[in-house]
Amino acid sequence: MKNIVFGTMIIASFFSAIATHRPVLAEWVHFGTDPNGSETFIDDQSFKFEEGVLHLWVKEIFDKPKKIDAIGDFYFNLTDSHWLINCPERTLAVKTVIFYDENGEVIHQFSLNMTQLAWRDPPPGNSPEAIMRVHCDLLEQN
Q1: Residue 12 located in a structural domain
Q2: Which of the four pLDDT bands, split at 50, 70 and 90, describes residue 17?
Q3: Residue 4 lies in a domain
């Protein structure tokens, strides 16, 4: 009888732990709104700094649907992107992009390996340049 009670307590504790466990979700922080109304968010918990390169996830919500003919005949309203920022070189590359429609459904995605990345200087005055400037300056101060 003691074994049954003890076993029941262990099983109940296990299921209680599962029921109350909450996974760590993205902490999207609003970074800014560009002149055309598109909004940029950064996942505060995705920051990782390796060998001079800052890794982070960025969400962009566009003011109106966009289309990229080169990768398919679809319109998207939202992207989640894995950005890599080389702070010493002040260059940026995009490793992964997930495209969503207006209902939040994934409609396309791609991911590149490190040898395929196209490192570039972000144009001044846009979200990538501002994100790079703010975060690289903070890293350099520490």
Answers
A1: no
A2: very low
A3: no
Contact 110, 97 (CB under 8 A): yes
CB-based contact 92:83 (threshold 8 Å): yes
DSSP 17: H
Structural domain count of the chain:
1
The β-bridge partners of 33 are: 39
Q: Is residue 2 part of a domain?
A: no
Report pTM: 0.75
Which of 40, 85, 31 lies closest to 59, judged by CA?
A: 40
Tens-digit pLDDT profile for residues 21-36: 444 567 899 999 888 7
% pLDDT > 90, the chain: 41
The 10 Å Cβ neighbour count of residue 99 is 22
Strands (E), the chain: 28-33, 39-43, 48-50, 53-67, 75-86, 91-100, 106-111
Nearby residues of 97 by Cβ (< 8 Å), 6 or more positions away: 79, 80, 81, 82, 109, 110
Query: How far apart (Å, rounded) are the C-alpha atoms in residues 62 and 35?
Result: 11
